[in-house]
Amino acid sequence: MDHTFPRPRVLVSRCLGFEACRYDGAKLFSKVVTLLQDHVDFVDVCPEMEAGLGVPRPPVRLCFEKEKVEVWQPAKSRLVTTALVDAATRQVKNISECDGAILKSRSPSCALFDAKVYSGIEQPQFLRWESGVFGKMVLAYLGKKAVDDEQRLTNIILREHFLVKLYTWARFRSISAKPTIGELVNFHASHKLLFLAYNQSRFRVCGRITANHEKLPVADVFQFYETELGKILAKPFRRQSMVNTLYHAYGWISEKMSSEEKHYIISTFEEYRDERIPLQAATRLIEAQAIRFQREYLLSQHLLHPFPGELSDLSDSGKGREVG
Ligand code: SF4
Fold first, then answer.
1. Cα-to-centroid distance, 44 and ligand 1 (Å)
2. How far is residue 228 CA from its own chain's centroid?
3. Which residues sit opposite 211 in a β-bridge?
4. With a cut of 70, which residues of the chain have pLDDT below it?
5. Residues 79-103: pLDDT tens digits?
6. Range list of H helices, the chain
7. Of 86, 139, 208, 310, which sits with the fewest C-beta atoms within 10 Å of its C-beta?
8. Whether the CB of 57 sits within 6 Å of ligand 1
């Protein structure tokens, strides 16, 4: 089968392989950024360079001072909050067309979840973790899209969830360029099995929006659908929900299968349930049977190919599960 994929736009921290712009003059390697580089259009940004802090530069840190979080550069004994907030504000204005973001973890500027906040300028004790200055704005502007940091994306579950979201949002952006109800109906129908695995009740809400019984303007329908799509994809699917969806797909192909074939495919689903094989092992079997019995409906489902196969990477750090 020939599968075509849109080319997502991904915001990325510039130091993750694009320029030696880190405070210490380093450029970092990120496996997920390298994996994606032939498949997406990256929009690389560095808020600290944009703020004119230079490279190399003394590091900055977040400090809780006088009831608010400030950005403090200890080596220069100066606050750079205003410069960094202004720079981040300028950069975030250009990201609305992005389908996702990969930002640098731990950075006081780019971190999404894990920038260190200290108790004050004078007594720099660790206080808590929170978003960096730019990371917080990215979550506010792009939060429902595929947004994560390079460290969490070393975890296979989070990475696959990220990729499913990234390509789903890219497909939605593509139909939103010339929005018609017909395109939205096709989008919704071809994501049915995938969305059922993610969130059944939200999938049905999207179905009602798509039906548009109230005869709302197309722009409003797309806006409502976009809001619900964000809720469908908010969290990774549960394995049990995916197993249920696999059995749902099985219903489309089982009729003419021999009992040995049925036994084999069901035992494959159960191996997936027991975390002994990846999801693709099960979906490939479904696809093979769908081709054999010419089940066009199944073959049109993005469940079988939610993102390009070349991006499947089974390596797993085990890290990142505890966040979010
Ligand atoms: S983490 Fe963000 S601010 Fe820091 S060097 Fe990388 S891109 Fe620049």
1. 10
2. 16
3. none
4. 1-2, 314, 317-324
5. 999 999 999 999 998 898 999 999 9
6. 31-36, 47-50, 81-92, 133-142, 156-176, 181-190, 192-198, 200-211, 218-232, 239-250, 259-273, 279-292, 296-299
7. 310
8. no
